[in-house]
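Handout, section B. The chain below has 121 residues.
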Amino acid sequence: MGSSLVYVIVLNFNGLKHLKYCIPNVLEGTYENFRVLLVDNGSTDNSLEFAKKFRQVEVIENNENLGFSGGVNVGIKRALLQGADFIALLNNDSMVEKQWIEKALRVFAGCGFLLRMTKLA
């Protein structure tokens, strides 16, 4: 599983204030074979300009807000075309542990998908 290609899809709409934390946090991950794909749903708050500063982040620009499912579907299609073995979906306000991909792969090794879970207080 260490060589499995994992695509992390971050969906965004006018979430610059969240992306400032989310993108650097995700890029700190220790798993070696992952790519970050930001799908932007027509933001007008400079989210795209910020995301494009990170050479490790591939950006897809939608001209309009396709909603959650529409935006995610665009990202999933791109990830599958690029050969993703696993796909993780994150909202733009997500924060993850450095080894979250490794941990998720161990748990979901036979499922073919990853889940993002949040602890509720």
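Note. The chain has four helices and four strands. Compare this with the example in section A.
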